[in-house]
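This section describes the prediction task in plain terms. A model, or a person checking by hand, is given the sequence of a single protein chain and must write out its three-dimensional structure as a string of C-alpha cells. No templates, partner chains or ligands are provided. The sample shown here is typical of the held-out split.
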Amino acid sequence: MEPSSKIAPVDYLITILQEWKKVLLFVFAAAVLSGGASYLLPKWYASSITVLPPRSQGVGSLGSLSSLLRDFAPVGGSTRLGGQSQPVNYLAILRSRRMAETIVRRFDLVQVYGVPNGSMEETIKEFADNHGVEVLDDGSIKVETADKDSVRAAAIANAVIDELNTIAIEMGVSEARSNRMFLEKRVIDARADLTTAEEALRKYQEVKGMPLILSDDARSAASAVSELFAKRMRLDIELSVLRRTAGEDNVAYRQLSIERAEIERRLSAFPQLGMEAFRLYRNLLVQQKILEFLVPLYEQARIDEQKDVPVVLVLDKAVPAERKDRPKRLLIVAVATLAALLIAISVLVVRKRVRLFIDENPERVSAFRSIMQKRPVS
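The expected answer:
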C-alpha cells in the first residue's frame, strides 16, 4: 500500500463519491436548519433621507464674516471647507454624540433595543450600528437608519435631519453673534478714527483760512493709498479669523500672509510726503474706505444672528420601507449550505487519512491503545 503522504487526489474523489448520500443529507439538513433559523430572525427595515447642504451666500464682493469662517475652516489641515467639501461640517454634527443622545432619548431606544441596565453608551453603540451617513458624489448627504419597525426607521431618519438643522442653526447664531461683537468694536473704532480725521482736516482748513486744494496727481495717489489700506484691513480681519479657527499653520493663512506682505511692500513704495494737506486728505480717505468695508460685514453679521431657517434642504424625505432590509435569507442559506459542503468533504478527507495511517502503522496504533487503556480513570 502507498504511504498516506502520497495519496492521489482521485482517492479523495472516490471516497466522496462513495459517501455522496451522507454528504447530500448533511448539506440538505444544513440548508433546512439555516433557512428555518433565518425565518426566526427579526426583520429589519431601512429608510433613508437625502439632503442638500446650502451654498454659502455673501454680501457684496467680500461676503459675510460667517462665510469667511466657513471658507477658511481647515479640512485635514490643508484644504478649505467650501464647495464640494462643505458637507464635512454637517457630517461632524451627524456623527456627534449630542446627535446620538438626542435621538436615543427622543425615541426611547434604550427600551426599543432592550439594552441591559439602561446603558446610554451601549445604546449609542447599537444605534451607530443601525445608522449610517454617506456623502454622495454630487455633494448631497444620505442618512440611512434601520429598525425593526419600518415606521420608526423613517421617523428616526427624518428626526436626525431635524436635529441637524437645530444644531446647525444654534451654532450659526453663536458664530454670527461672535462675529457681530468682533465687527461692532471695529466699526466703532473706525467711526471714531474717521471723525478724528475729519476734525483734523477741518482744523487745518480753519487755520489756513481756505479750502483744501490738491492737484489731480495728489488726489489719485491718496486714493490709491487708501485702497491699499482698506485691502490691508480686510486681510487683517481674515487673518484674525483664520488664526482663531485654523491656526497659523493653515495653508490659507500662509497665503493671506504673503498677500498682506505684498501690500505692505507696495505701501512702503509710496513716498512719505511731508505735505500736511496731502497727509490729512489721505488719512480721511483711508478711514472712509475702512468704514465702507466694515459696515456691510457688520450688518450681515447682525442679520445672520437672527437667522433661524433650515440650513439643509431635504431632497428625498424618508418613508417607511415596504420590504425588509435584513436578514438576507437566501444569502444565509447559501453560506450555510456551502459551509456544510466544505465541512462534509473535510471530514471525509480527514477520515480517509486517519484510516490509511492506522492501516500503515498497526504497531504504533496498538501501542497507543495500550497506553490509553492503562491510564487511570479520573
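For orientation: The chain has a mean pLDDT of 77.
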